[in-house]
Automatic annotation (TrEMBL):
Gene3D superfamilies: 3.40.50.2300. The modification 4-aspartylphosphate is found at residue 54. Keywords: DNA-binding, Phosphoprotein. InterPro entries: CheY-like_superfamily, Sig_transdc_resp-reg_C-effctor, Sig_transdc_resp-reg_receiver, Tscrpt_reg_LuxR_C, WalR-like. Residues 133-198 form the HTH luxR-type domain. Pfam families: GerE (PF00196), Response_reg (PF00072). This is Response regulator transcription factor. It comes from Lysobacter soyae. Residues 3-119 form the Response regulatory domain. The keyword DNA-binding applies. The keyword NAD does not apply. PROSITE patterns: HTH_LUXR_2, RESPONSE_REGULATORY.
Amino acid sequence: MIRVMLVEDQAMVRGALSALLNLEADIEVVAQAEDGESAWKMLAEVKPDVVVTDVEMPHLSGIELAQRIQRHELPISVVIVTTFARAGFLRRALDAGVRGYLLKDAPSAQLADALRNVHAGGRSIDAQLAMEAWGEADPLNDRERQVLRMAGEGQSASEIATALNLSQGTVRNYLSEAIGKLGVGNRIEAHRLARQKGWL
């Protein structure tokens, strides 16, 4: 039996996925969480074989959850199921050790097959997205990405500096680097382009 934890911030989608997966004779949904942080707190107790997660969620994204699982060397495979068909997201997901990346408009049978494949040690990646993923590299480093994401959420340089324990000058430098690397005029354009590419 493949023990699955579902992590999805939309309750209706989470419920539908759970109902579909529980129809499979060899798959059992043992836990559900509405965001990555809640899922992280439940992992030690639930001990799923596979975590099925969305990308963008409050508090902790699916990719950040995968990074934590990888960093702590937990014996848990991660499969992302998302609407975001962006090569940048896939590249970051693969770097975080994600074993599967599927789009929400894929047939439900494809998800069940992906879980079996991943549980057996394989990978299940959307083929078209995989081809696109190697076309354009993400120019941002982790800190630039973090600062740019917070700036895009409307936080000022001083608020970002306080939250990240950095000086305001350092925050401005990170923003300036990100703007330069993306070849745009300001932080708003940088945030928009980076999101569009899937780099945030």
